[in-house]
Amino acid sequence: MNVAVDLVALAVHRNELNTLAVHRSRHPFTGHHALPGGLVNDDEDLPDAAGRHLLEQTGIRPADGHLEQFGIYATPGRDPRGRVVSIAYLALLPGLPTPVADTGTTTVDWRPVRAARRLAFDHDQILFDGLEHLRTRLEHTTLATTLCPPEFTISELRVVYEAVWATTLDPRNFSRKALSTPDLLRPTGSCWIGPTGGAPAGLYTRGNAKVLYPPLRRPDGSAPDAGAHAPIAEESTR
Amino acid sequence: MNVAVDLVALAVHRNELNTLAVHRSRHPFTGHHALPGGLVNDDEDLPDAAGRHLLEQTGIRPADGHLEQFGIYATPGRDPRGRVVSIAYLALLPGLPTPVADTGTTTVDWRPVRAARRLAFDHDQILFDGLEHLRTRLEHTTLATTLCPPEFTISELRVVYEAVWATTLDPRNFSRKALSTPDLLRPTGSCWIGPTGGAPAGLYTRGNAKVLYPPLRRPDGSAPDAGAHAPIAEESTR
DNA sequence: AAAATAGTGTCTATTAGACAGTATGCC
DNA sequence: GGCATACTGTCTAATAGACACTATTTT
User: What is the pTM of this model?
Assistant: First the structure.
């Protein structure tokens, strides 16, 4: 049985969440876009395989970002070439998308997740699930900082939340929450002044905190749903 | 590459959480205990494979319970016979453990999770992760009801929480929380009187609610940890 | 009566969320 | 001055957790 990894690679750029998609030049789904990914080697661990395919296909090395497994896709028939069990990874990349290196064989580019539609295979579903996973993780963890550059302001962190949750947050309450979480932010001492004026904003680096406790809830709009569970049933393998 | 499923099958019995373990009669790890599970057929979906192995090895049909995928174990070398990617499932079974059918080839029995140690392969880790997954899920979902019989009292539901979290909860506050969650419980009208006296307790069946919102937090003791994440790193594939 | 259990009522500390207000920068 | 941004302070409603209290059963 073939085992593959697929990557939902995300970065926030100009207040918007973007994802990496490769343009397929081969059968099947020629001409469609797809998530980066590919088969796992016999002696290769899964995170290594995910990092390797990301590097090979996009020139991005995940070392600065965060790689996290979030789902499995194994329905027989999901790949017309044969049975493939695919392990889905979320790759969170800091700040501006690293310029994509065109490695010759594949063309890859960043596109707003809102505009990512009709991907090959079941990748629409994988992207959707990955986003939903991220949305929930942002409530309980400090993962949002991995979508920020090494030094960032509280506003930048807030923009990450707003982009992922597709909502707006009160800047004042968000400031307080960020500053009151122990070891979430470490002040660098320097400041940054935006192009549109306003008071200088403190610059911070990531602290060691991994967990947000109490969590930061997303506003009512986006549904805090735990996924349906049928009596017999399963999930995240649709 | 071989793809397998492994099951952390759980039930609450006499205020204690129990898990299913099969006694291995073959190489490798002969004589050790292991989690139920086995290879996935070429044309078989993962939840089907999980249900099939549970039925074959324990005689328990998961139809009355709940099956949910929670992790992947794929480190090269985790099985001495060759590369195996294992998908881990949680099986939550209602009420008293169904008597285990000895199917001849394997011996299987229930044992308290506290006493489950030194399992074959990396099954200690899988069991640990599965329990941790369940503990977190109980905070945010109504899954605890799937560990109760079809009709149950609020006390029985509380005992499930106490067994999984290895803690004690205030019965009065728990009652209020359970009763105030919309469509968590449906009164059957009948009552049940325990062997040790006390007022009659209402009997309920599961409602349609899947999500606990706001969540039911576990007391400070058990760590609400989101799992470490290294800069490069990964998780749930250790 | 004593002990155990079920469930309600009440109080307090904490938190989320709304928003006024102040300070600092650009145009 | 006018406007945008950063951040602090304050108020209110909701919630978690502690625990008194009543009711109902067995022993």
Answer: 0.91
